[in-house]
Each structure stands twice: as C-alpha cells, then as structure tokens.
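Reposting from the mailing list since nobody answered there.

I have sequence plus structure tokens for a pair of proteins and want to know whether others read the tokens the same way I do. The first protein:
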Amino acid sequence: MDKVIITHINTIPIYRNYIENLPYNPNLKNRAKALRKAGVLSEVIFWLQVHKGKFYKIDFDRQRIIGNYIVDFYIKQLGLIIEIDGASHNDKETYDERRQTYLINLGLNIYRISDLRVKHDLGNVMNELENYILEKYSTK
C-alpha cells in the first residue's frame, strides 16, 4: 500500500498514520462538549493556532473521546494526541500513566505541552510541534 501524503511542512511530505476503529464511549459526549465550552485558556490559545487548517492544513479535533478518556486535541490523520498539561494534572500521576499506556497501546502517539509554555512561549511551542511531526511522520 502506498503511503498517503496529508500535507507538507517546509516541502517535506507528512504521511498519514490513521488508526482505525478507535474505541469510543458515548457516555462521555456531554462531558467532552462541556470541556470544549469551558475554554481553558491555554487550550483556547492553542486552538486558535490550529483550527480551520491554520497549521499546515492539518485537521485537529478538540476534546476528542478515545475509549474512556477525553484527550485535549487529536489529529486523526496522524494518530496523534496533543495534551496540554496544566494544574488539572497535578496529583494525578498514576491516572495519567494508566491513560497514556492505554492510548499508546492503541497505536497512538502523544505529544505533551505545558500550560505555561502555551501561554508564554507559543512561537517555540508551535515550532517544536512542527519538528515533532516532521520527526515522526516524514521519511527524512
């Protein structure tokens, strides 16, 4: 099967890594909707950088349900989760570890960004995300 190019970053092709048949808990639908509406500042700031294809025409989902978890951002075409870690992750190391293991076992990649960096170092955060995608999804 040929690799499908979904976009280019700096003329380098980025290849699709779609993970099929991800589990979905419909009971979390209202919670995900409430989280989207709540508008955590760092998530809103990040969303404004990536929604409507602003980031290399890559389609991002916000507050996506995967199994029994809701992830901050998800790129279906890449099988990539982006988590913005803020105060809500404090004292939840065991939960976060179990969640991360579950998501990785589905074949997904997880990219973590700190809440403070989104608020205070957005340019570098976006450059680092670009470099991560280049590293993981191109054939340099």
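The second protein, same order (residues first, tokens after):
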Amino acid sequence: MTNAIHWPEWVPMAGHHLRVSGVHFDAVRIQGAHGEVVAARLIAEARGDAGPVIREMSGARWMYFLVAPGTVEDHAWPLGVQRFGMSRTVTYIGVPALAGNTWPLGWYSEPTPATPYVEPARLLAALGPIGT
C-alpha cells in the first residue's frame, strides 16, 4: 500500500537513504522470521495501521520498527531485540521511499497520518511468545 498523501520529511522521494536514529525516530530491530511474526501480529492487532515497519529483503532479513524519537529507552525490551536512538550512540537506519525501486529495503507497514510511529506498548505486546 502506498500512502502518497502522507510522505514524512524523513522518507526519501526515491531509492533509500540513511537516517540517524534518535532524530526523526528511534528504532527497534528484530531479526528474520521472528521479526516477521512480530510484525504480522502488530499489524493484525492494529487492524492494518501499525505505523512504520521497514524490512530488509536480503541478508539477515531484519525488521525495523520505528517508534517516536526519545522513546526507545523508556521500555524494557526482551533479549534478542536491538534498540537504536539512545543518546550515547549514533546509528544510521536505511529508510526506503514509499514508491519505486527501494531494494533491498521495503515497507512492511508504512507511516500514516493516524500512526506516524509504532506504538511501543503495542510492539511489546506483539513480542509475546512465538507460536501462541
């Protein structure tokens, strides 16, 4: 789905660009199949409007859940979850455009006017045990 009406300033117009976490967003990263399961749960719980989730389509197939800037440190994340945006680190996150060729990155769930970021509490709930 491409929401051409809502194109946040940090989303490039074409291809993909690196953005510093902690400025426009913080990020929570989960690897491979586990990340895909969590993203699917999150989207189902949010009835399709979960906020921005970026997927890497090669390599480790990371899923990046973009939360509001300054919020990643406010929560206790389980093992296996990496968090970016903390004040003492600088991390660049690849952000794809909403349309066109963005390989190897793509949107699993796009930002929308109603949900510009993933809600951390909802993401934590989606991180529940796999297989339930």
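Reply #1 (J.P.):
I read it the same way you do. DSSP finds two helices and seven strands in the chain.
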